[in-house]
Specification:
Strand order of the largest sheet: 2-3-1-9-8-10
Pfam families: Asn_synthase, GATase_7
Number of helices: 28
Largest sheet: 6 strands, antiparallel
Catalytic activity: L-aspartate + L-glutamine + ATP + H2O = L-asparagine + L-glutamate + AMP + diphosphate + H(+)
Pathway: Amino-acid biosynthesis; L-asparagine biosynthesis; L-asparagine from L-aspartate (L-Gln route): step 1/1
GO molecular function, one term: asparagine synthase (glutamine-hydrolyzing) activity
Helix content: 40-55%
InterPro entries: Asn_synth_AEB (IPR006426), Asn_synthase (IPR001962), ASN_synthetase/amidase (IPR051786), AsnB_N (IPR033738), GATase_2_dom (IPR017932), Ntn_hydrolases_N (IPR029055), Rossmann-like_a/b/a_fold (IPR014729)
Distance between the termini: 19 Å
Shape: globular
Number of strands: 19
Length: about 625
């Protein structure tokens, strides 16, 4: 696992700029560094050594030095591809997956190379013969890749903060996206909260040539081949084989591999499969308050399968003291309250191992979120109640004060792309109108993301919701925080359930094998749970999903931390973007159990993020509260 950056040379940029940029992301690769510069481009690389420790230095070069590669990630089928390339006449100087990318590019060209890869990756190849820069990101966005294009300057990097080391980077807040952030807690598109900075989307590549950048898609997850003849038993048997194969592939390393372990079925299943291959050290996080702690579950399970487990306990001080640092390492504001836990879990794991497995992805691919269940209710409502009746009831309900069933009637009159809860995950349009100081910033966030639902128009609602989550929630929230919080600690996290082979099979599963009903009660991830139940105890396989629980809702009301939030809510940053009276009202309502913790956390973390990245625009210098991890100091 590594980090890289680069830029198209412009007159007047000091030669040491590339090293300054790479040092901004040193935490991604503390073991080694490497640079390439010529009259066209500058490439920088920071390495975390995982495979072929002696020979994996980058940039890596092709024949006659006509190609230069910088690569972040792991190619899990690199040994198979290596043999295929040797048969095609290639010779290899190393046994690392990086060289497969160079030789594959030479032999097959970029598109065919991408079609063959299985792994998590972001890489850039400078092609001196073609005078172009080619960059690509993995199928589901496990590894990050950004570029900056202002029409004159073009640069790229594993993290946005790398651009801060380049004097031609104009750092500007993309204020037009504030309402989108308040709705989703992330930006569900290629845009970012920095002007002219863009994500390379999952399954996409870019080519920069002759002053122009173009992007294209090489992989798109779809539900075009659903097989309605499939059964839960048959799916479960296939999932067993796929998970076993994926975990084996994800265990390939020349360093020790550990595993995150919560009380849930996903991480327990992955951990159990890994333990069949070799002894593996697991790491679990909890709190002193047992109501929110999963440590008793995870410790017991590790002991049951005779594997080591290290419990890590987090306090309120750990949590709140870390938040400005979290905003620095996130690059963009992200208000997922589980992120600080993931940072401390990664910090604890890194003391013993440089690589861990994790269980992300099962909920999105196999139908694990309880929120998918409401689709069945709305589909029945739409089937039996005519549209004009639903529209009338929704219109009338909207005019009345709150009453039981009001929200259902309003949403029941709306199409899925507008009512799906992720579209208004934190603030809906009405709430945003109250908190935003500039009413012109409020926008229809459902329209902003409607095109994603349009791509699966005609599919059942559960499938549409999963598709939306796979293309937004998974890459821009779940995988984003996993990458940033682990790499801040120079820890590589691997996700065997976010895997091309596993996911492509999940796309063939009908809804009835993803979510079923037993004794009148819904069973989410039905086939996946059945597969897991054949490998782990039933008490784990059938356990209700908890997410990553924390006492943050209680901590917000604790005077020790409440005062910090109040200070932020009355800062010059808050006054610039928000109606402070409304922020006070939300805090007051939360104290009485009538307001969402997520609303408070989203506003608070945005204020911290803005103070970290734009300290010159504020009187409160949150950047001074950022505590860099050891490899960045």
């Amino acid at each position: 696992m590594c980090g890289f950056c680069g830029y198209i040379n412009q007159a007047g940029i000091p030669k040491e700029t590339i090293e300054n940029m790479a040092n901004k992301i040193k935490h991604r690769g503390p073991d080694d560094s490497g640079y390439f510069q010529n009259e066209d481009v500058s490439l920088g690389f920071r390495r975390l050594s995982i495979i072929d420790l002696a020979h994996g230095a980058q940039p890596m070069y092709g024949d006659n030095n006509s190609l230069a590669l910088t690569f972040n990630g792991e190619i899990y089928n690199y040994q198979e591809l290596q043999q295929e390339l040797i048969k095609a006449g290639q010779t290899f100087q190393t046994d690392c997956d990086s060289e497969v990318l160079i030789r594959g590019y030479e032999t097959w060209g970029p598109k065919q190379l991408l079609s063959k890869l299985r792994g998590m990756f972001a890489f850039v190849i400078y092609d001196q013969k073609q005078h172009q820069v080619f960059g690509a990101r993995d199928h589901f966005g496990i590894k990050p890749l950004y570029y900056y294009d202002d029409g004159t300057n073009f640069m790229w990097g594993s993290e946005i903060k790398a651009f801060l080391g380049n004097p031609n980077f104009k750092k500007e807040f993309n204020e037009d996206l504030l309402a989108v952030h308040l709705s989703f807690e992330f930006i569900p598109s290629k845009e970012t909260m920095f002007k002219n900075v863009y994500k390379v989307m999952p399954g996409q590549y870019f080519i920069y040539k002759d002053g122009n950048v173009t992007t294209d898609t090489y992989y798109k997850y779809n539900y075009d081949h659903i097989d309605n003849s499939q059964t839960i038993d048959g799916n479960a048997q296939q999932i067993e084989k796929l998970v076993d194969d994926s975990v084996k592939a994800h265990m390939i390393a020349d360093v020790p591999v550990g595993s995150f372990l919560s009380s849930g079925v996903d991480s327990s299943y992955v951990f159990n499969e890994a333990a069949k291959l070799q002894p593996i050290h697991s790491f679990s996080l909890g709190f002193n308050n047992s109501k929110f702690s999963e440590l008793s579950w995870s410790t017991k399970f590790a002991k049951e399968i005779k594997q080591e487990n290290t419990p890590i306990t987090m306090t309120g001080d750990n949590y709140f003291d870390f938040l400005p640092t979290m905003m620095y390492y996130m690059d963009e504001p992200l208000s997922n309250p589980s992120a600080p836990q993931l940072f401390y879990l990664s910090q604890g794991a890194r003391k013993d191992v440089p690589v861990t497995l994790s269980g992300e992805g099962a909920d999105e691919f196999f139908g694990g979120y309880n929120t998918y269940l409401e689709a069945f209710t709305f589909e029945r409502y739409q089937k039996w109640v005519p549209k004009f009746v639903r529209s009338g009831l929704g219109h009338i309900a909207a005019k009345f004060p709150r009453f039981h069933g009001r929200r259902f009637l309003i949403r029941g009159a709306e199409p899925l792309w507008r009512r799906y809860y992720r579209v208004n995950y934190v603030f809906d349009e009405v709430d945003r109108a109250k908190v935003l100081k500039n009413p012109k910033l409020n926008r229809d966030t459902a329209e902003y993301s409607k095109h994603i639902f349009d791509e699966v128009k005609g599919k059942d609602e559960v499938t549409q919701e999963q598709y939306f989550d796979i293309n937004t929630w998974l890459p821009f929230d779940i995988l984003h925080k996993a990458d940033r919080m682990s790499m801040a600690n120079s820890l590589e996290v691997r996700t065997p359930l976010v895997d091309k082979v596993v996911a492509n099979f999940a796309a063939t599963m009908p809804t009835k094998t993803r979510i079923t009903f037993k004794d009148g009660k819904p069973v989410t991830k039905a086939s996946f749970r059945k597969a897991a139940a054949s490998q782990v105890p039933d008490v784990v396989a059938d356990k209700e999903k908890l997410g990553f629980p924390s006492p943050i809702a209680q901590w917000i009301n604790d005077p020790k931390y409440h005062g910090r939030i109040v200070e932020a809510f009355h800062s010059d940053i808050a006054q610039r973007f928000f109606n402070v009276d409304q922020l006070d009202y939300i805090l007051e309502q939360h104290a009485h159990g009538k307001s969402s913790m997520q609303k408070i956390f989203t506003i608070y973390t945005f204020i911290l993020w803005y103070g970290v990245y734009f300290p010159e625009n504020t009187n409160m210098h949150y950047d001074q509260k950022v505590v860099l991890t050891p490899n960045d100091r």
